[in-house]
Specification:
Layout (H helix, E strand, L loop, with lengths): L1 H8 L4 H24 L4 H6 L1 H7 L4 H16 L1 H13 L4 H29 L6 H27 L5 H30 L1
Length: 191
């Protein structure tokens, strides 16, 4: 919905839309991840399920990773599936559309993993939404910068391998370390 309002609010000129398209789609992906993060562990915390997960014989990082995967399937995967349609709406070139899909495939799981760490830290707070945003938004900025830069570079016919390698290395790092950090943050929030 956010992406469809930009042509109405700014200008329906194809050249303007092509210029702002990478940022528009990526801000929509960031907002989709951000708005759904606060409830990632909140219901489990309130009904005691989170304590049971922490006491479970199963590894807490694995359980936390499965919650993050479910979050990504709800917030990130639809953005990847809708990206070609959004690119068409914003008159993006085929090369830029392919780059958009690749960056969303690498970046949206990263948004979910980073956000889950912040959510686990603030799950015990009554009004943790604002603090959550302040904690994770600075960590989202590199993902946003490199992803939008890759799409803009692809639209200009330049190589994007450097940006994709950077996003891929961040994703590998986050997949490795985020579940451990989430589990530690959950244990801190429960104590």
């Amino acid at each position: 919905m956010v992406v469809s309002l930009y042509p109405l609010g700014i200008s329906p000129e194809p050249e303007i839309l092509r210029t702002i398209a990478p940022g528009v789609v990526w801000i929509a992906a960031l907002l989709a991840a951000l708005f759904s993060l606060e409830n990632l562990f909140k219901a489990d915390f309130l009904d005691g399920t989170l304590e049971q997960l922490a006491l479970s014989p199963h590894p807490l990082p694995l359980l936390a990773a499965s919650k993050v995967l479910a979050h990504w399937l709800i917030s990130g995967l639809p953005m990847i599936v809708l990206a070609p349609l959004l690119a068409l709406l914003l008159t993006m070139s085929p090369a830029a559309t392919a780059a958009l899909v690749m960056t969303l495939a690498l970046g949206t799981p990263l948004l979910s993993l980073i956000g889950a760490v912040g959510t686990a830290l603030t799950v015990g707070l009554k009004r943790g939404g604002v603090l959550l945003t302040l904690l994770i938004l600075p960590l989202y900025i590199p993902v946003l910068i490199f992803a939008t830069n890759a799409v803009s570079a692809a639209a200009a016919g330049m190589p994007i391998s450097g940006q994709l390698y950077f996003l891929g290395s961040l994703l590998a790092l986050a997949i490795t370390l985020a579940p451990i950090a989430i589990a530690a943050a959950i244990r801190i929030s429960l104590s």
